[in-house]
Predict the 3D structure of the following.
Amino acid sequence: MHAYRTHTCAQLRAADVGQTIRLSGWVHRKRDHGGVLFVDLRDHYGITQIVADSDSPALAILEGLRVESVVTIDGEVKARSAGTVNANLPTGEIEVFARAATVLSRAEELPLPVAGEQEYPEEIRLKYRFLDLRRDTLHANIVKRTQIIRETRRRMEDIGFTEYSTPILTASSPEGARDFLVPSRIHPGKFFALPQAPQQYKQLLMVAGFDRYFQIAPCFRDEDPRADRLPGEFYQLDLEMSFVTQEEVWDTMEPVMAGVFEAFADGKAVTPAGTFPRIPYAQAMLDYGTDKPDLRNPILIKDVTEHFRTSGFGLFEKIVGSGGTVRAIPAPKTAEKSRKFFDEMNDWARSEGHAGLGYVTRKGGEFGGPIAKNHGEEGMIALYDAMGLGPDDGCFFAAGKAEQAAKLAGAARTRVGESLDLIEKDAFRFCWIIDFPFYEWSEEEKKVDFAHNPFSMPQGGMEALQTQDPLTIKAYQYDMVCNGYELASGSIRNQHPDLMVKAFELTGLSQADVEARFGGMYRAFQYGAPPHGGMAAGVDRMVMLLCGVQNLREITLFPMNQRAEDLLMGAPSAAEAKQLRELSIRVVDQPKA
């Protein structure tokens, strides 16, 4: 017999009754029924009920153990009586009568419970993550994460992609976040950077002729933590293809992403491959107020600026007259909602830092509220007809500069959809956001800067860079969005060295700067670079959506806390003086605030 187990804690069934077996695992729960002890024994695979009574030498041993102690049980498989069968447990038809118990490891008093799903302070959960990971839901999420990655890898290989590993120690890259720097001992005063993404390497692979690359790639960014982005490191499905248009990238990846989601959606609807809507960035900002729209929400924002250019409602007329916009957010079937509902929406907008959220009520065709009163019934009817609103539909208004109005309207759209229970349940709705701006204005630096990936191909090529206002140039840049989350971002790349230099010149960098910062790419493009493009999909966000959780810590093995600290391993930690001397580094105290 095996030293520790003949079966796992999920294997035994009614057909095994009468067998002598050996199980090993953790004591999950104990229930003392007056001389008869029931123990739920747990391992990675499942749970088996163990029974010990006064006839068993195991009783005294098991009685003296705390939960989460590790034991080996020798015993006999018995059938449960009809009234005690547990239909919710795969092993629920049987139990094991313990003939002997061997303690492999005793547990101390637990700092947090493992059995059950009680809420517990995050600091405790992260410090004792090895215990937290034993809990059913988190344990299952981690297993599902591995299965999702395996399915993704299989689908990529099935369509002709090959996985290649790119370097971890590399040079700094302009990905829009802070680098993690690694000091070089051999080259004092110089630093490697951990890759924010394998962007340059995967493009160099295309130049090197590898055609279809992918990688489940670790990426490192020194960013502040938030619920949908972990501090430090994350993983992405990174891919690149040669001799492709952006449409071919979309057509290639829709079946992969839809297929992975269908495999793990547990019956939820998934947008079929080949039908992902393709929404221009400008249209997304107009209709949804965001470039990450949740298409489960049926509400569409409307630009009603022209309706208030001449209006009895002076505030909106003034905003429009000074170059601002007015966006309308329908609130369908709200005739029975009290004034409180509308006022609370206005209060919410102010709490978010906005001036306020105007509104109009309508019941049986009768308009209500200050905006309707001042704008006039005729004007309101024209506005409602243009928007396709009915006699019992309310409406909210976001007014101000275009960017501010869009942001407020987008947030209000989400809040109205949730408040009115309009969000489609049990569905994953995908879309592509396309035609992103190539450049944006940096108010902080008072100059034009790249809006997204600087290595993207500008639409219109060199002619656009030479003749257009930079802020009007679009890029062959695209995002894949699902349920309000950006799941992937990609582009067709710029593979011409002269075009690359010109694109960076418009942001204030010279040819010498480009050669110094991106010398590898610049040289590569001079020796025959194929047209190429690709994308990167966030593995962590995919898993988060498929596990139905709101925080990436619930699908990550050993995450950091909100202060970017690893409480389990005690990182980051101070380096020893000897280590710093070897690296030619001196730590400088930060000035006190």
In short: The mean pLDDT is 95. The longest strand covers residues 20-32. The first helix runs from residue 58 to 63.
